[in-house]
Amino acid sequence: MAIRTRTPSIFRPRKTIDQGVLTQNRALIDDIDRRNVLRGAVSLGALSLLTGCDVSEDDSVQKVLRTVSAWNDRVQATIFRPHHLAPTYSVSQVVKPPRFNAYYDIEDVKPIDGATWKLELAGRIDNKQPWTAQQIYQLPEQDIIIKHICVEGWDYIGQWSGPNLRDFLQRVGADLTAKYIYFICNDDYTESIDMATALHPQTILATKYAGEILADPFGYPLRLRTSTKLGYKNAKWIKAIEVTNDFRETFWSKQGFNWFAGI
Amino acid sequence: MTLSAVKSTSHERRPQQRRLHPLPVRVMHWINAVAIFIMIGSGWKIYNDDVILGWLHFPDGLVIGKWAQYGLQWHFLGMWIFVLNGLAYLIYGIATGRFRQKLFPVSLRDILATVNDALHFRLAHDDLTHYNAVQKILYLGVMAVGVLIVISGLALWKPVQFSELAALFGSFQATRVVHFLCMTAIVGFLLVHISLALLVPQSLVAMITGGPVVDDGAAPEIKH
Fold first, then answer.
1. Domain spans of chain B, in order of start
2. Structural domains of chain A ordered from first start
3. Full-model pTM
4. CATH topology of domain B19-217
5. Do the beta carbons of residue B21 and residue B222 sit within 8 Å?
6. CB-based contact A30 B201, cutoff 8 Å
7. Interchain CB contact of B168 with A (< 8 Å)
8. What are the tens digits of pLDDT across the range B3-56?
9. Are the Cβ atoms of A155 and B172 closer than 8 angstroms?
10. A184 pairs with which residues across the strands?
11. How far apart, in whole angstroms, are the C-alpha atoms of residue A131 and residue A113?
12. In this complex, how many residue pairs, one in chain A and one in chain B, have their CB atoms less than 8 Å apart?
């Protein structure tokens, strides 16, 4: 059987390269290979070294990260145990005063005048009559000594009291099948929680800390305290509560923090 | 090199001839490498917001995420990759007998002998298919740390929903310390692991190409 040899290109050298060169320089070639691998590893690291243009800020990357965060919201809602109580602690373990936290410094807190303040109600609620601080103080109080866990990693034990949120929602005729409770605060802060968390036995509208009326920096006259969420979900200086089925981004979730933020 | 020595010389070529690192192992190894890179870099960012050791802040150039929320976003993306891939790897390693074959048995005498060899610069690494006792201990150890970092991570992520699990660690801050020490152990492992992979480049190449063809480990036992 005759195999026709292909006509070599006129650009092809008549003589092939001596393969001996490769074997003679094996060590050098290996070395180059190794350095390329190193360079690859270094550029992977360099990706995160470019602090000036963090890859997380890239729109398409941020879209992926936020999609995963939304998926994590769903996972957290699924594993949420509505009747499972967070550990509670003894009065002697309570930290006084509580630790201040907000997106601004304690000196910048704008105190609320409790005499004129009213809690507004909105959305899927039968009785939207506003509540004064005195009226809220008349309601049955629940006392919980729980841990406050901040997304940053610190925690402290605090003693909070005030009306149970489920009781309050029932009292005002809120639609307990709605999806979200949305809090509007006296600063420009907003927060919202899922209904399951709102109905959890350790979710209260706190008016007191360690048995005394809340001090200004910690949310006077009314704030949320729930044992099942990170610190930032516990809105302070609440001025309005809305029961709604519409999901709205909140102060921190707009900036990329996880919305569900369950613990 | 003893590549030819480990190749099967038997006449009845068993159909189950495979490479040192079968494809699933290589794929899972590199997925894990990416996941670990994400988890450590973003973990360092999260750590910086409330440090455990007063003197230790990870430099901005070494962390993933310019702002806290980006670090958190990466960490809670990376956890899925790390956990799902890690689970697949553990199931694969146990189901195929790879762990039993590669990592066991490991005796104290072997460990001491390997350490002794290493101290005398007599450590043999021409045979990639055989792990010495120190390698076995390190691989088993880092897997155990991998399991512990996931468990402590779950306890940090959900100290209330998984309060029974969180209670095993004592307090929330103790859990953070455990999680942090696991990270430290993994970083220590990586320093050794990557240095050795670069010193013995054929081991790195093997994790890409699959390495030499080896007999199926289960075969000798079936033979008689």
1. 19-217
2. 60-255 (3.90.420.10)
3. 0.83
4. Fumarate Reductase Cytochrome B subunit (1.20.950)
5. no
6. yes
7. no
8. 444 444 444 445 556 788 999 999 999 999 999 999 999 999 999 999 999 999
9. yes
10. A190, A240
11. 14
12. 102
